[in-house]
Each structure stands twice: as C-alpha cells, then as structure tokens.
Amino acid sequence: MAATRTAPRPGAAVAPPAAPPPTARQPRRARAQVGRSLRDLATSVALVAAALLAWEGYKALGRATGDLVPFTSLPLPVATDDAAMPHVWQVVAALAGPASAASDQSLLAYYLQQTSVTLREAAYGLALGAAVGVGLALLMRQIPWLGRASMPWLVVSQTIPLVALAPVVVVWIGGAGFPSWVAVTVISAYLAFFPVTLNTATGLLSADPTHVELMRSVAASPLQTLLLVRVPAAVPSFFTGLRLAATASVVGAVVGELSAGAGLGIGRAILTAAYYYSLAPANLYAAVLVASLAGVVFVQVIALAERLVLSTREN
Amino acid sequence: MTGQATTAPSTAIRLAGVSKTFSTSSGDVVALDDIDLDVPEGGFVSLLGPSGCGKSTLLRVIGDLVTPTAGTVEVAGTSAAEARRTRQYGMAFQAPGLMDWRTVRRNIELPLQVQGVGRAERRQRADEMLELVKLTQFADHRPRQLSGGMQQRVAIARALAMQPRVLLMDEPLGALDEMNREHLQRELLRIWRATGTTVVFVTHSIPEAVFLSTEVVVMSPRPGRIASRIPVDLPYPRTDETRLTDEFQAAERHVRERLHAVLEPSTAGL
Amino acid sequence: MSALAPAERPVRLPRARGRGLLVPLGPAAVLGVVLLLSWQLVVLVGGVQAYLLPAPSAIAQVVVSDAPALLSAARPTATAVVLAVLAGAVLGVLASVVVAMFEGVARVVLALVALAGCAPIVALAPIFNAWLGSTSIASKVAVATLSVTIPVVVNTTRGLLAVSPTHREYMQSVSASRRQLLLHVRLPGALPALFDGLRVGATLSVIAVIVSEYFGGTANALGVLIANTAAMSRFDQTWAAVFVASLLGLSLYGLIALVERLAVPWRSATPG
User: Fold this and answer.
1) Is the dihedral of CA B73, B78, B81, B83 positive or negative?
2) What pTM does this model have?
3) What DSSP letter does each residue of chain B carry, written as one string?
C-alpha cells in the first residue's frame, strides 16, 4: 500500500510558530468551532437516520425472505413481523396517540409524566448518595487509616452487582410502611454513593505534592490546605464520579420500580407495556425509548454542569 | 555536483530555496524562508538556534514529513519523497518513542518488519545493532525497564537498522542529564564513524553542536533562516580531552558569537 | 453505569512489590471484619427481626446449606455473563477498528455511543425477551452483550485513536502503510484501553443479566432466585444469592485481570 503522507499539524511535532496578537485570533477560532459543532450535529443526525434505516431495512429483508438469512434456511435471530418489530412510524404513532381508551393525554405525555417521577427519585437518590459520599471521602482523607482500610472495599464495590439488592430494599422499606418511591430513592442513593466516594477520595489524594509542600512552607492549617489545595484538586474526579453515579442512579430507579411493581415511574410503565405486549407491541418500544432518552438527558445535565464548573476553573 | 561520482565527497542532501509557511487559525506563519543548504555525504551537520527558528521544521522538510511551500529537497540524487518511500531515512526524536509492547530487540526489528525483511535476517540485523549501541544484554527487556539514556540508544539502533543514507535527529539527547548526555555524545560519534551515515542533528546546545559536528548551521528565528554556517575542523575521534583544547573553546566562542548575533541583532559582534 | 474514558477507568488496587497485595489489604481486612461483627451484634443484640435483616451468620449458614441450589442457579447466570463478555469483546473490537479507520466521524460516533451508554440498558430487557423469548438464555445474553459492547467500543476506539505523535511520526519516517500503523502501533497500543473497557463491561454484564432475570428468566437463575426469595421475604436466602452474585462479579473481574496480565505484560513492567 502506498505510504500516506500527511503533513503534521503545525505545532504538533515542530516548534510552535509565534502567535499573533489575541484580538486577531478570536473571531476565526469561534467561527471554526461553530462550523465544527454544526458538522458534528449533522453527522449525528445522519448516523441516527442510518440506524433507523437499518431497522427498516432489516424488517424489509425479513419480510422478503420470510424471516430467513438470505441464501440459507437459517432463521433470522429476530422476527420481522410488525408484532415483533414495529415500524419506526408505528412507534411514533403510538406515542402521539392516546395513553389509554379513557384518557385524552397522549402516550408520550403520559410516559414523560412517569419519567419525571423516576428522574425525581433518581435525582434525590443521587443528591443523597453524593452528599454522604463526599462526606465519607473527606473523612477518609482526614483519617488516613480509615482511608487505607476503605479504599479496597470501594474498589471492590465496582465489581459487584449492588443493584441485585434492590428487591430486598423494596420489600424492607415497603414492609416498614413507606411508599415505594422511598425505596427507589434509597436504591438510587446507595448506587450513587460508591462511585462518588471512590472518585472523590481518589481526587482528594491526587493533590499536587508541590502545592501541599507550598502550604506547609507558609504554615497553613490543615483546614486551609484542605480547602485551598485538596478540594480544588478533587473537583474533576468528583464530577467524574457524579456522572457515573447519575447513570447508576437512573438504573437503580428503574430497577427499583420494577421490583416494587406498584406505584408510578417509567420502570413500572415498561413493565405494564411488556405485560400487554400482545395487544400493543409498539407501546413497549415507545416506553423503552422514552426511558432511554430520559436517562441520557439526565446524565447529560450532570455532564453539562461538570463542563461549566471545570471551564470556569480554567480562567 | 548532480549525484555523479566525483573525487570530492558527494552531496547527500541539497536544499534549494526551501520555504515553509503554516496557515494557522491565527494567521500565516513563515517557519522557513528561502533556505539553501548542502550536506556532504558522511557529514555531521548540526542545526542550532533558539526556539522558533524552524530547525525542527527544517529537519522534517528534509525527511519528507513536512512538505515545503517552495523550493526543492534532493536526497542522494532523488526527491525527499522518493527517499522516504525507499526508506533512506533513520529518525530519532526527543522522546525515544519506543513501543512499550515490544522488547528492545523487537523494537529494533520494527522498521525491518515494515520493510518486509525476513525473520532470520531481521534478528541478525537487530543483534548487530544491539552490539553497535552496546545493549546486547538488554535485548529481551522492555523499554520501560531501561533508563532514558538507554532508551535513546535503542532508538538510535532502531533508526540505523535499515542502514539509512541519512540519519535525522531532533534533540535526541535533550531529556538527559549532563553526564549521560556527554556519554551518549561520545557513543553517537563512535556509531556515526562506524556506519558512515550522513547525520543532520537538531540541538539548542552550543557545546553539543561543536563537539559532534563537521559543520554547525546557526539559524535565526521569525522567519527561519540560515544565519551562519560554521565548519568545525577539529579532528576525530573527539574525546572529553577535546573539549578542553583551545581549538574547541575557540570554535565554541565563534559559534556563540554568531548565535548571539542572531538573538540580538543590535549588538552584532565582530 | 456509563462507559468510562481511559482517564476514568476503575481505580485499581496498588500493586505492592515483594509481599504482594497482602500488606495494603491488612487494614481493609480489619475494617471488613469489624463491620461484619457490628452487623452481627446489631442483629443479635439490637433485636432486629431476623426476617428483616439476617445476621451474617445466618446468611453464611444458608450459603453453606443451600450451596448446591445456589450453584445450580448460578450456572445459567454465569453462562450468560461469560458469553456476553466474549461476544461483547469481539463485537466491540471489530466495531472499534471500523470506527477508528474513519477518524473524521470517529469522534461523533464515540460521543453517540457514550451517550447511548448513559441510558438504562436494562430497560431493553423486555424487548429482548419479546424477541428472543423470556425464558431463553439468549435474551439475557443479548442485553448483556450490548452492555459490554458499549464500554469496549468507547475505550478501545479512544485507545486506537490515541497514537502518540512520536510513534506516528516514526512510522511515517519509515514509510509505513496505514495497515502497518494499525497492526504494529494502534492495536497493541489500544490493548490496555480494551481491557479497561472489558473490566467495566464485565460488571455491567453481571448487572444486566441479573436484572433481566428479574423480568423473567429460566426457572433457575440467580436473578430469579433473588426476586422470588425477596418476594417471599426469605431475606437470608436473598442475601445468600446476592453474595453468590457478588462472587461471580469478583471472579469475572479477577479472570479478566489475569488475562490482562498475560496479554498486556508491559503494563505492569516495573521501571528500571
């Protein structure tokens, strides 16, 4: 194959060229960034459209070959009739249609309502778990032996399916007389707790030793060192943990609702849609779609907060 | 002097009117402006200058890693692009750039693998190179287990594995401490004289440039131009004693003056 | 849980030389014992009703006495998990290589995949049940494979794209082809990232299989066992099953770490 020759980006491996005055730099760079964002958006839309086309394409293929792999008599892994795989527009139509025979609300509105309940539970759980997590992380930093002793357990917590305890928590809390949303919040909280604690604790330990030495050389108190050096050093890791915790807390909320069976929430709605699948297959897809998008939005809100906080720090 | 055999040493590298302008988001930057340079076969030429003078860019233009906006580059009678395609270059960078996942020997074998050389011959050539840089006993170690200086020696061995016409080096000793640096300078000279390769060496250290080279090319910044070409007539082999001789000190002084003239044109020396 | 960037990969235990991991784990073991004893005391002395929070001793008893049943329940779960990890690894690597070849769109694809990873994948379980049958192992494997593929793709693609400039320049200087760059530099360089993704994926796989079993699985699987015993308030059995599930997660993690040590020996090479 002929060698491809690409000129390296200026500044990549050669000495950086001298920079012209800043005022000349801004408009061009901003224009380039906007152009890039638009291109990214267009590419994303194109990729999603391609995925939807693939869905319809697979359906069409299955319809044509009678659900067999072409040129063989092997069955396709997933059936392509409308009951098993509704058309994309059927799912959209289901969302636009009424939630039930008795209601005026569209299915989409109904699912969004349920989702807001789930996200509220996830948010409370996230806040609770994160607060306790930060507290423990600070404690771990202040009491070294506690830190050393807890770290391996926190690391191990990443490998065990804590969410498996969800049914236990649901029955406990239900048995204690609390409504099911409390159980769901508790599950979200403990799922959020571990990544936040682990990442924040690691972050607190990651302070630049040079900075710590500087504080010591000006006879700063431990509290001052904590606030001025260690906490700022831990902020990026904290947000990483928070982002991971956000995803975990949504999963926890959904699983909690599944285990609870009764009550509100999109997990519950998915369960119902699955139960009535034979009557309205498109509803299940609609519910799962709404749940997935909600999860994504939730985490992205946290990610946005992260970007804002970190970018203001850069100044 | 167009590549035909002559009694004088032939020209390994000829640059004529080479210019390079980069378009950055903040405007055009002229990195190199109308560079003419001849490097004789078997020579050791240092490119010396302050940061921003384009010495690294010039090295990469010679190696066909950067395409000049104007001018021509001839290496061993052909274009730089053809020379790279036919693998006439060995390159060493400031970071050793060894592959962590390969042993020292396999790192040296890499260019030969790319070239398509057979396994037995690769192994033999790699062993020769290991002997040349005196690292035979570390053949099966991993790069991370070696010190910085040793990693650079492996990088040099790797650069020489294909027996290139031209060895291009971009401040390869820059990350080493003084003692290691001087030791490796001696080793580099020994290896150069053993292989007879033409070397173009980028550095910002005056003693290093004078110690190693047959010619020191002082470059001025913004835009990058050749300010002076200073032949260094000291005899080889050069040792630590050489550094103490009057001739060496004089050569260093001369280069220093030229370099200061470049940095502060208003106070140009004699 | 979302797919993790290399910088966010799971924090690992420090590798101690000489006496191995025993020294740094000492305090942790002490803490663990202290917590277990406190739990035991709270239940016994505090008069917490055994059916609400069983004592560790009770749970241990169940683990021992029900061991055959627990193991046979663990079998389909473990099978699904392992199959998913293998399938996810293969699919993930293939997809990553394809994506990395189109550097222009790679960034966007990566962002979209990472975005998809934020969704509660377990919500897809009912769909896979509808497609592949709720009592078959295939539906569990399908959900779990998706959970594994996402972090593997995100991490491996990043690893494939993150070629050091020095390596890239070097390969250019010896006129290496794109295929040679992929084979000799990108792929081996991306192995550490691949294993980072695989470790995350392994945990997600266990979660995915167990949660999809909550939606209905083969009559005898860990997730089904957990859900059923919890519904019957037989919490000692539930905790025992959760314990076994945790052991599954830990063993898988350890297995992957072992394979990583063999496949990526340079990651743990001690500096000279």
Assistant:
1) negative
2) 0.84
3) --SS--SSPPEEEEEEEEEEEEEETTEEEEEEEEEEEEEETT-EEEEE--TTSSHHHHHHHHTTSS--SEEEEEETTEEHHHHHHTT-EEEE-SS----TTS-HHHHHHHHHHHHT--HHHHHHHHHHHHHHTT-GGGTTS-GGGS-HHHHHHHHHHHHHTT--SEEEEESTTTTS-HHHHHHHHHHHHHHHHHH--EEEEEES-HHHHHHH-SEEEEEETTTBEEEEEEE--PPSSP-TTGGGSHHHHHHHHHHHHHHHHHH-GGG---
A281-314 vs A231-260: helix axis angle to the nearest 10? 170
**Which pLDDT tens digit goes with each residue over B74-127?**
998 899 999 999 999 999 999 999 999 999 999 999 999 999 999 999 999 999
Q: Which residues of A touch B31 (CB under 8 A)?
A: 10, 14, 17
Q: What are the domain boundaries of chain A?
A: 104-314
Cβ <8 Å between B81 and A5: yes
Pair of tokens at residue C266: 């340079």
Beta bridge partners of B14: B38, B74
Q: Does B114 touch chain A (CB under 8 A)?
A: no
Distance of CA B171 to the CA centre of its chain: 8
Select from B110, C124, C238, B31 the least CA-distant residue to A10: B31
Determine whether the interchain pair B142/C167 forms a contact, defined as Cβ–Cβ distance below 8 Å. Answer: no
User: Per residue in C191-237, pLDDT tens?
Assistant: 999 999 999 999 999 999 998 888 776 678 999 998 888 888 888 89
Do C175 and B114 make contact, defined as CB atoms within 8 angstroms?
Answer: yes
Does A277 contact C126 at a Cβ distance shorter than 8 Å? yes
Chains with at least 3 CB pairs less than 8 angstroms from chain B: A, C
From C122, C226, C252, residue closest to A167, measured CB to CB: C226
In this prediction the ipTM stands at 0.87
Question: Considering only alpha carbons, which residue of chain C is nearest residue A3?
Answer: C177
| Interchain contact, C203 vs A165, CB within 8 Å | no
Residue C27 and residue C16: Cα distance in Å, rounded? 14
CB contact under 8 A, B114 and C173: no
Measured between beta carbons, the chain C residues lying within 8 angstroms of A277 are 126, 130
Tell if the CB–CB gap between C266 and B65 is shorter than 8 Å. no
Q: How many CB atoms lie within 10 A of CB A12?
A: 11
Instruction: Count Cβ atoms below 10 Å from residue C44 Cβ, excluding itself.
Output: 12
Which of B65, B100, B114 shows the shortest C-beta gap to C169? Answer: B65
User: In the Cβ-directed half-sphere of B36, how many Cα atoms lie within 13 Å?
Assistant: 2
| CB-CB contact of B73 with B64 (8 Å) | yes
Residue C149 has phi, psi (to 5 degrees) of -60, -40
Structure tokens at A37: 């964002």
Interchain CB contact of B66 with A (< 8 Å)? yes
Between CA B139 and CA B142, with CA B141 as vertex, the angle to 5 degrees is 125
> Out of B114, B141, B145, whose CB is closest to C174?
B114
Max distance between CA atoms of chain C, in angstroms, equals 76
Assign a CATH topology to domain A104-314: MetI-like fold (1.10.3720)
